[in-house]
Design a protein that fits this description.
Strand order of the largest sheet: 2-1-14-13-12
CATH superfamily: DD-peptidase/beta-lactamase superfamily
CATH class: Alpha Beta
CATH architecture: 3-Layer(aba) Sandwich
Order of helices and strands: HHHHEEHEHHHHEEEEEEEEHHEEEEH
Number of domains: 1
Distance between the termini: 45 Å
Strand content: 15-25%
Number of helices: 12
Shape: globular
Helix content: 25-40%
C-alpha cells in the first residue's frame, strides 16, 4: 500500500466556521476491535483520510414505529468534502416536490418533458432513447440518477427545479449549510444561475411551459475552500497550487443522512424537513434507490461496465462484489477528486436487520487533483466494504425487543 505524504500535502482547507468534531468512542472501538491493518491505517490517520462515518441504529416499538440513534466517528459538518454526485439525491427529491406543487393537470413525473436552450452554453433535450417511449421525463431522469448516477439526468432536473428554488427550499427544510450551485458540465457562475425553458407534452401538445429562470439567491463565498497541494486545470496543465472549491456544491454528511432519512422514514423527521411527495413518489424512489443496473430494461445498461454493486459501496463495491438477493441497499453515492461518499439504508429481509450508514473518505496520496490518480480501489472502496461489514455483523448479533416488519421495503423491481 502506498505511503501517504504529510497531511498538508493531502488536504488544505479553510473552514466555513469553527466546528465541533463528533465522535462516539463506542463506534471507534467497535471498528478498531475487528479492523484489518488497512482499516486501522485509515482510522489512525483522520487528518490524511478526512473520513467521517455515521452509523444510524434503528429500533422498532411494538407498533413497528422506528426510533433512530446516531453514532458518529470523526464527523464535523464544517469540514469540506466534495459531495460530487451526492447532490443528485436532494435534486431528485426536489423535482418530485416541485411537480406536486405545480398541481397542473396531466403534469407528473411520467409526462414527457422537453428541455430547451435559453442561455449561453445551455443545451436542449427533446428525445431520450433510453426511455420506453423515446421521450425524456422526470421519472426517467430519476431512474438514471439512482441506477448509475447519470450526470446529464442531474443537470436536467437541476434546470427544472431551478437554482434559486432548489436552494431556498433546502434551507427552509433546515439544511442551512447545504448549497447546490452548479451543473456537472463546464459553466461559469452566471451560466449556472440561468436555467432552461421547459415544456411538458401530452399527445404531442404542450400542456405546461416553464420559462427560463435566473437565480438571484445569495451564496456566501467569503471563506476560501482549498484542497490539495496542486491540480491540473482544464487545459491539462499542472498548477502548483491547491484547487479552489469555494463556489462548488457543498453538503455536510449529516445533512445528506437526514435528507435520505426524511424520504425513507418521513415520519421520523419534523414536518418542515419532509419533501412534499405522494405515496407513488415514495414507492418509485424506494424502487430506484435500491434497484440494480442489471434489473433495469429502460434504461438498459452494459453490466460489464455498470456491474451489480456499481453504486453500492458499503460492504459491496470492493472487488465488484455480489449482493445477496435478501439484502437491499437504498442509497446514493458520490465519487470525485479523491472523495468517496455513500449514504445508505441497508435491509436484510432474511435476518430482519435494518440500519443506516453514511460515510466519506478522501484518498489522494500525491495531493494532486484532476490527475486521475486516486486510491479508490486500494483504500477507498475497501474502507467502505470493511467498515460496513463490521457494522452489519454487529447488527446480526444485536438483540432487538421487537423484530422489524420490513414489508414496506419489499418491492417489485420489474420495469414500470
Amino acid at each position: 500500500m502506498k505511503r501517504f505524504l504529510a497531511t498538508s500535502y493531502c488536504l488544505l482547507i479553510c473552514f466555513f466556521a469553527v466546528s465541533q468534531q463528533k465522535t462516539d468512542p463506542w463506534l471507534d472501538q467497535l471498528l478498531r476491535k475487528q479492523a484489518s491493518p488497512l482499516l486501522l491505517n485509515v482510522l489512525n490517520k483522520p487528518d490524511s483520510f478526512q473520513y467521517q462515518l455515521i452509523y444510524t441504529q434503528i429500533n422498532r416499538d411494538k407498533n413497528n414505529r422506528p426510533k433512530f440513534k446516531h453514532y458518529y466517528l470523526n464527523v464535523e459538518r464544517n469540514r469540506y468534502f466534495n459531495p460530487a454526485s451526492m447532490v443528485k439525491m436532494p435534486v431528485a427529491f426536489s423535482a418530485l416536490e416541485k411537480l406536486n406543487e405545480l398541481n397542473k393537470s396531466g403534469v407528473n413525473k411520467y409526462t414527457p418533458m422537453l428541455t430547451d436552450s435559453s442561455y449561453e452554453r445551455q443545451t436542449r433535450v427533446w428525445k431520450d432513447s433510453s426511455a420506453a417511449n423515446g421521450l425524456p421525463s422526470v421519472a426517467q431522469y430519476i431512474r438514471k440518477i439512482f441506477l448509475v448516477s447519470d450526470n446529464d439526468a442531474y443537470n436536467r432536473l437541476y434546470e427544472f427545479v431551478g437554482q434559486q428554488t432548489l436552494n431556498e427550499r433546502l434551507w427552509q427544510k433546515g439544511y442551512k449549510d447545504t448549497r447546490i450551485t452548479r451543473r456537472f458540465v463546464t459553466m461559469n457562475e452566471d451560466q449556472n444561475r440561468h436555467t432552461n425553458a421547459i415544456r411538458f407534452l401530452k399527445d404531442s401538445q404542450i400542456i405546461y411551459e416553464q420559462p427560463p429562470a435566473n437565480s438571484t439567491v445569495p451564496f456566501d463565498f467569503s471563506k476560501k475552500i482549498l484542497v490539495g497541494k496542486g491540480h491540473f486545470n482544464r487545459d491539462d496543465s499542472l498548477i502548483d497550487a491547491p484547487m479552489d472549491f469555494t463556489t462548488h456544491n457543498n453538503a455536510p454528511l449529516e445533512d445528506l443522512q437526514q435528507i435520505a432519512q426524511s424520504v425513507l422514514f418521513p415520519e421520523s423527521v419534523k414536518p418542515r424537513q419532509r419533501f412534499k411527495l405522494t405515496e407513488d413518489d415514495y414507492a418509485f424512489l424506494y424502487r430506484y434507490m435500491s434497484k440494480l443496473p442489471y434489473e433495469s430494461k429502460h434504461p438498459q445498461y452494459d453490466t460489464t461496465e455498470f456491474f451489480e454493486s456499481y453504486t453500492k459501496f458499503f460492504f459491496f463495491k470492493a472487488g465488484h462484489g455480489h449482493i445477496p438477493s435478501y439484502i437491499r441497499a437504498f442509497n446514493k453515492t458520490g465519487w470525485s477528486y479523491g472523495f468517496l461518499t455513500d449514504v445508505t439504508y441497508i435491509v436484510d429481509f432474511e435476518h430482519k436487520v435494518e440500519f443506516m450508514l453514511s460515510g466519506v473518505i478522501y484518498v489522494n496520496s500525491d495531493g494532486i487533483l484532476n490527475d486521475n490518480k486516486y486510491e479508490y480501489e486500494q483504500i477507498g472502496y475497501p474502507f467502505f466494504k470493511e467498515s460496513g461489514n463490521i457494522i452489519y455483523q454487529y447488527e446480526l448479533s444485536r438483540p432487538r425487543k421487537y423484530q422489524p416488519d420490513l414489508t414496506k421495503f419489499r418491492l417489485n423491481y420489474q420495469d414500470q
